[in-house]
Amino acid sequence: MTQRDFLKDAFIRYTGITSQSDRYQTYLPTTEGQMELAILLKDELHSLGVTDTELQEDAILIAKISGNANIPAVSFMSHLDTVDIGASPDVNAHLIKFTGEDFYLDKDKKVLFKVEDYPQIKNYLGDDIFVTDGTSVLGADDKAGVTVMMGIARHLTQNNVEHGDVYLVFVPDEEIGLRGAKALDISKVPVEFSYTIDGSYIGSFNYETFNAAEAIITIEGVSIHPGRAKNVLLNPLLIAQDLVAQFDILDTPENSENHEGFFYFIEMKVNPSGAVLDLLVRDFDLKKFEERKVFVKKAIADIQQKYPRAKINLEMEDVYANISNFLSQNKKPISIVEKAMENLGIPMVSGPLRGGTDGSVLSAKGRMTPNIFTGSHNVHSIYEYLPLTSLEKSLEHALEIIKLIATE
Ligand SMILES: [Zn+2]
Questions:
Q1: I want to staple 75 with a disulfide (CB 3.0 to 4.6 A). Which of 21, 29, 88, 167 is the partner?
Q2: Is 198 considered catalytic here?
Q3: How far is the CA of 196 from the centre of ligand 1 (A)?
Q4: pTM as predicted
C-alpha cells in the first residue's frame, strides 16, 4: 500500500468514529467515542509492531517506538476529540477532485462550497480534497494529526531509519479547555521537547501562544427588602459594575490584535446576595502578563477598600503558558522545523496564535512544544477541508524532523 493510500484510508477510518468532546462532562474522556478511537489506535499500533503502549482510563494513549541508535528522543502529540459547533457529531468525510469550480457538499440541501468565499482552495487545483457532507465539521482538527502520527509509526516500523525513542501521545478533550494535555503526566514522556501536530494549512507553524490565567471573583453583598434598605443594602451588582469599570475598555479582545494582550470578562452571575465574575487574562509577553495579574489584585483590593462591608474573594490561576517562554533557553525545536520545511521546499508561515494549544499546557509544565501543520483549512466549520497532498506533506515534514534530530 502506498503512503498516500494508507493516509487516505486511515483518515476516513478515524473520522468515521464519532468523538466530539462534551464540555458539560467532568470525567475524562468526556465521550465514549474518544476511548473507542484510542482503542482502535492502540490495536493498529500493535499490528504495526509498536507494542510498547499504555492506554490510560482517561483515554490518554502513549506509544513508544524504541530508538535504534544513540539519538535524542522526541514526542509528537495530537488530540482524539473533534469540536462541537452545534452541527452533527457524526462525520462523513469524502474525497472530491477539485476542478476550480464551486461544488456541493450536500446537493439535496444545496450546501454549496463557494470558491470565492474560501479562495485559498485555489492552491489545490486538481488535488483530491477531503470535505464534509455539509452537516458537520470534517474533524481534520485533529484526526489529520492522529493520521499523521500513525503514518510515523508505519514508516518507522517498515523502513530502515535511524532514530531515537519516538513517543506518540494521543490525548482526549483538547477542544474543551486542553483537558487531556493538562491530565498528561509528562514524566511518562521523557523527551527534551515535543511537537503537537494540530496546526493549520501547509507551511503554517506556531510557537507563540498566549500566557493565560483565569480569575473567578466572588462578591458577597448584603441583601434586604428594598423598603428597609436605607444604609443596609449592599448591592453586589453595583459593586461588580464598579469593579469592571476599573479596567480599560480598550484593553479587550475586540480592540486588540497581533501581539497585544487583553482582559476579557466572559461571565457575570448576579443575584441580590452575591455576584460571580469570570475574567480571562491574556498576554504574549511574560512580564506584561504578570503585571496584568498584579493589576487584577490591585483592582480588587481597591474595590474592597471602597466597600468594606462586602466580602470579595479572588481565585486566579494560570491556565497555560506561551510556548516561546523557553525560546531563549532552547531554539532547537524551532530551528529543526525551519530546516525541515526548507529541505522540503515548503514556504513557512509563522505568527502569534491568539489562543492556546496543548503545547501551551505542556509549556507551562516546562516542556517546549511547538505546533506543526496538518494541512487543514477552515477548522471548526462545515466548510473544513483537507487536501490529501497536504496531509502527505504533513507526514513528510514530521519524518524530516525525526531525520534532522538524528543528524544534528
Ligand atoms: Zn485541534
A1: 167
A2: no
A3: 9
A4: 0.89
